[in-house]
Inverse folding.
Protein backbone atom coordinates (compact mmCIF):
# COMPACT_ATOMS: atom_id res chain seq x y z
CA UNK A 1 0.00 0.00 0.00
CA UNK A 2 2.87 2.36 0.77
CA UNK A 3 4.28 1.75 -2.72
CA UNK A 4 0.95 2.57 -4.35
CA UNK A 5 0.57 5.68 -2.21
CA UNK A 6 3.97 7.03 -3.26
CA UNK A 7 4.06 5.79 -6.84
CA UNK A 8 0.47 5.99 -8.10
CA UNK A 9 1.30 8.92 -10.38
CA UNK A 10 4.19 7.00 -11.95
CA UNK A 11 1.94 4.02 -12.66
CA UNK A 12 -0.67 6.41 -14.02
CA UNK A 13 1.92 8.03 -16.30
CA UNK A 14 3.13 4.68 -17.65
CA UNK A 15 -0.46 3.58 -18.35
CA UNK A 16 -1.14 6.85 -20.18
CA UNK A 17 1.96 6.54 -22.35
CA UNK A 18 1.20 2.91 -23.18
CA UNK A 19 -2.25 4.06 -24.26
CA UNK A 20 -0.72 6.90 -26.30
CA UNK A 21 1.75 4.59 -28.05
CA UNK A 22 -1.00 2.08 -28.84
CA UNK A 23 -3.36 4.82 -29.96
CA UNK A 24 -0.70 6.54 -32.00
CA UNK A 25 0.05 3.36 -33.92
CA UNK A 26 -3.35 1.68 -34.12
CA UNK A 27 -6.20 4.17 -33.70
CA UNK A 28 -7.84 5.78 -36.70
CA UNK A 29 -6.19 8.95 -38.00
CA UNK A 30 -7.34 11.31 -40.75
CA UNK A 31 -5.73 11.01 -44.17
CA UNK A 32 -4.61 14.62 -44.47
CA UNK A 33 -3.11 16.10 -47.64
CA UNK A 34 0.69 15.90 -47.88
CA UNK A 35 1.36 14.66 -44.35
CA UNK A 36 -1.19 11.82 -44.51
CA UNK A 37 -0.79 9.43 -41.54
CA UNK A 38 2.43 11.02 -40.37
CA UNK A 39 0.04 13.26 -38.44
CA UNK A 40 0.29 10.53 -35.77
CA UNK A 41 3.67 12.02 -34.87
CA UNK A 42 1.80 14.88 -33.21
CA UNK A 43 1.28 12.64 -30.16
CA UNK A 44 5.04 12.41 -29.71
CA UNK A 45 6.58 15.56 -31.21
CA UNK A 46 4.18 18.09 -29.70
CA UNK A 47 3.85 16.16 -26.44
CA UNK A 48 7.61 16.19 -25.94
CA UNK A 49 7.78 19.94 -26.57
CA UNK A 50 5.03 20.54 -24.02
CA UNK A 51 6.92 18.47 -21.46
CA UNK A 52 10.12 20.37 -22.27
CA UNK A 53 8.41 23.72 -21.70
CA UNK A 54 6.93 22.47 -18.43
CA UNK A 55 10.25 21.26 -17.05
CA UNK A 56 12.11 24.40 -18.20
CA UNK A 57 9.49 26.48 -16.41
CA UNK A 58 10.21 24.44 -13.29
CA UNK A 59 13.90 25.21 -13.76
CA UNK A 60 13.01 28.90 -13.85
CA UNK A 61 10.99 28.48 -10.65
CA UNK A 62 13.89 26.79 -8.84
CA UNK A 63 16.33 29.48 -10.01
CA UNK A 64 14.05 32.20 -8.68
CA UNK A 65 13.70 30.34 -5.41
CA UNK A 66 17.46 29.96 -5.16
CA UNK A 67 17.95 33.71 -5.59
CA UNK A 68 15.55 34.26 -2.72
CA UNK A 69 16.72 31.61 -0.20
CA UNK A 70 20.18 30.59 -1.57
CA UNK A 71 19.57 26.93 -0.84
CA UNK A 72 22.02 24.67 -2.73
CA UNK A 73 19.33 22.08 -3.46
CA UNK A 74 17.35 24.66 -5.43
CA UNK A 75 20.37 25.31 -7.63
CA UNK A 76 20.76 21.57 -8.12
CA UNK A 77 17.08 21.24 -8.98
CA UNK A 78 17.39 24.06 -11.52
CA UNK A 79 20.31 22.49 -13.38
CA UNK A 80 18.66 19.07 -13.22
CA UNK A 81 15.52 20.52 -14.78
CA UNK A 82 17.56 22.16 -17.57
CA UNK A 83 19.28 18.87 -18.36
CA UNK A 84 15.94 17.07 -18.39
CA UNK A 85 14.49 19.78 -20.62
CA UNK A 86 17.38 19.40 -23.05
CA UNK A 87 16.66 15.67 -23.30
CA UNK A 88 13.03 16.26 -24.23
CA UNK A 89 13.97 19.21 -26.44
CA UNK A 90 16.39 17.01 -28.37
CA UNK A 91 13.73 14.32 -28.76
CA UNK A 92 11.32 17.01 -29.93
CA UNK A 93 13.81 18.25 -32.52
CA UNK A 94 14.50 14.72 -33.78
CA UNK A 95 10.83 13.81 -34.12
CA UNK A 96 10.24 17.17 -35.79
CA UNK A 97 13.08 16.58 -38.27
CA UNK A 98 11.66 13.18 -39.21
CA UNK A 99 8.25 14.75 -39.68
CA UNK A 100 9.71 17.60 -41.73
CA UNK A 101 11.50 15.16 -44.02
CA UNK A 102 8.21 13.39 -44.75
CA UNK A 103 6.31 16.65 -45.19
CA UNK A 104 8.75 19.04 -46.84
CA UNK A 105 11.32 16.61 -48.25
CA UNK A 106 14.12 17.84 -45.99
CA UNK A 107 15.11 17.25 -42.38
CA UNK A 108 15.52 21.01 -41.90
CA UNK A 109 14.12 24.00 -43.73
CA UNK A 110 14.83 27.70 -43.29
CA UNK A 111 11.78 28.40 -41.15
CA UNK A 112 11.51 30.94 -38.29
CA UNK A 113 9.86 28.41 -35.97
CA UNK A 114 12.50 25.73 -36.55
CA UNK A 115 15.39 28.18 -36.38
CA UNK A 116 13.96 29.70 -33.21
CA UNK A 117 13.74 26.27 -31.59
CA UNK A 118 17.37 25.55 -32.49
CA UNK A 119 18.59 28.90 -31.15
CA UNK A 120 16.52 28.39 -28.00
CA UNK A 121 18.19 25.04 -27.40
CA UNK A 122 21.59 26.67 -27.89
CA UNK A 123 20.60 29.23 -25.26
CA UNK A 124 20.24 26.45 -22.70
CA UNK A 125 23.41 24.72 -23.87
CA UNK A 126 25.13 28.03 -23.11
CA UNK A 127 23.71 27.72 -19.59
CA UNK A 128 25.58 24.43 -19.20
CA UNK A 129 28.76 26.01 -20.59
CA UNK A 130 28.43 28.86 -18.09
CA UNK A 131 28.17 26.42 -15.20
CA UNK A 132 31.22 24.54 -16.40
CA UNK A 133 33.29 27.70 -16.68
CA UNK A 134 32.94 28.81 -13.04
CA UNK A 135 34.62 26.83 -10.27
CA UNK A 136 33.43 28.61 -7.11
CA UNK A 137 30.09 26.99 -6.25
CA UNK A 138 28.16 29.96 -4.81
CA UNK A 139 29.23 32.22 -7.66
CA UNK A 140 28.33 29.54 -10.19
CA UNK A 141 24.89 29.09 -8.64
CA UNK A 142 24.12 32.83 -8.58
CA UNK A 143 25.29 33.43 -12.16
CA UNK A 144 23.44 30.37 -13.40
CA UNK A 145 20.22 31.39 -11.68
CA UNK A 146 20.30 34.88 -13.18
CA UNK A 147 21.17 33.55 -16.63
CA UNK A 148 18.41 30.94 -16.39
CA UNK A 149 15.80 33.67 -16.00
CA UNK A 150 16.94 35.38 -19.20
CA UNK A 151 17.30 32.01 -20.96
CA UNK A 152 13.65 31.13 -20.36
CA UNK A 153 12.45 34.52 -21.57
CA UNK A 154 14.66 34.32 -24.67
CA UNK A 155 13.54 30.77 -25.40
CA UNK A 156 9.88 31.81 -25.23
CA UNK A 157 10.62 34.75 -27.55
CA UNK A 158 12.48 32.54 -30.04
CA UNK A 159 9.80 29.86 -30.36
CA UNK A 160 6.56 31.77 -29.72
CA UNK A 161 6.91 35.48 -30.51
CA UNK A 162 9.46 35.95 -33.29
CA UNK A 163 7.95 33.26 -35.59
CA UNK A 164 4.58 35.04 -35.35
CA UNK A 165 6.12 38.45 -36.04
CA UNK A 166 7.98 37.13 -39.09
CA UNK A 167 4.74 35.92 -40.73
CA UNK A 168 6.85 33.64 -42.90
CA UNK A 169 6.68 30.35 -41.04
CA UNK A 170 5.12 27.28 -42.64
CA UNK A 171 5.13 25.39 -39.33
CA UNK A 172 1.59 24.31 -38.28
CA UNK A 173 -0.03 26.23 -35.44
CA UNK A 174 1.84 29.46 -36.12
CA UNK A 175 -1.31 31.48 -35.34
CA UNK A 176 -1.74 29.80 -31.97
CA UNK A 177 -0.71 26.76 -29.98
CA UNK A 178 -0.18 23.76 -32.31
CA UNK A 179 -3.12 21.33 -32.13
CA UNK A 180 -4.86 23.36 -29.39
CA UNK A 181 -6.65 25.93 -31.53
CA UNK A 182 -10.25 25.29 -32.53
CA UNK A 183 -10.31 23.25 -35.73
CA UNK A 184 -6.55 22.66 -35.59
CA UNK A 185 -6.88 18.98 -34.67
CA UNK A 186 -9.27 16.32 -35.90
CA UNK A 187 -11.73 15.38 -33.12
CA UNK A 188 -10.78 11.71 -33.56
CA UNK A 189 -7.24 12.51 -32.45
CA UNK A 190 -8.06 14.49 -29.34
CA UNK A 191 -8.70 11.34 -27.29
CA UNK A 192 -5.02 10.47 -27.74
CA UNK A 193 -3.43 13.91 -28.05
CA UNK A 194 -4.49 15.34 -24.68
CA UNK A 195 -3.48 12.21 -22.73
CA UNK A 196 -0.16 12.36 -24.62
CA UNK A 197 0.56 15.83 -23.24
CA UNK A 198 -0.21 14.66 -19.71
CA UNK A 199 1.79 11.46 -20.12
CA UNK A 200 4.94 13.14 -21.45
CA UNK A 201 4.79 15.79 -18.72
CA UNK A 202 4.54 13.09 -16.04
CA UNK A 203 7.46 11.25 -17.64
CA UNK A 204 9.56 14.44 -17.70
CA UNK A 205 8.82 15.09 -14.01
CA UNK A 206 9.67 11.48 -13.15
CA UNK A 207 12.98 11.67 -15.02
CA UNK A 208 13.75 14.98 -13.31
CA UNK A 209 13.17 13.50 -9.85
CA UNK A 210 15.33 10.44 -10.53
CA UNK A 211 18.17 12.48 -12.01
CA UNK A 212 18.01 14.97 -9.13
CA UNK A 213 18.47 12.15 -6.61
CA UNK A 214 21.45 10.85 -8.58
CA UNK A 215 23.11 14.28 -8.72
CA UNK A 216 22.46 14.97 -5.04
CA UNK A 217 23.91 11.58 -4.09
CA UNK A 218 26.96 12.25 -6.26
CA UNK A 219 27.34 15.67 -4.65
CA UNK A 220 27.16 14.18 -1.14
CA UNK A 221 29.78 11.58 -2.03
CA UNK A 222 32.10 14.27 -3.40
CA UNK A 223 31.70 16.32 -0.22
CA UNK A 224 32.50 13.28 1.92
CA UNK A 225 35.63 12.59 -0.15
CA UNK A 226 36.75 16.20 0.23
CA UNK A 227 36.29 16.03 4.01
CA UNK A 228 38.37 12.86 4.15
Amino acid sequence: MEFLKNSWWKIFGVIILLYVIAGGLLFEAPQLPVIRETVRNIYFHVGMWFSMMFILFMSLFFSLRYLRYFRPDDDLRAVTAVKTGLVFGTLGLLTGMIWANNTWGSFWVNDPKLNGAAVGMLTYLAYMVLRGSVDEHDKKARLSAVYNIFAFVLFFVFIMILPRLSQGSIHPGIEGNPALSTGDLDPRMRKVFFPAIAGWIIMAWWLFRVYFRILRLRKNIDELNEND
Remarks:
- The CA atoms of residues 24 and 40 lie 6 Å apart.
- The chain has a mean pLDDT of 88.
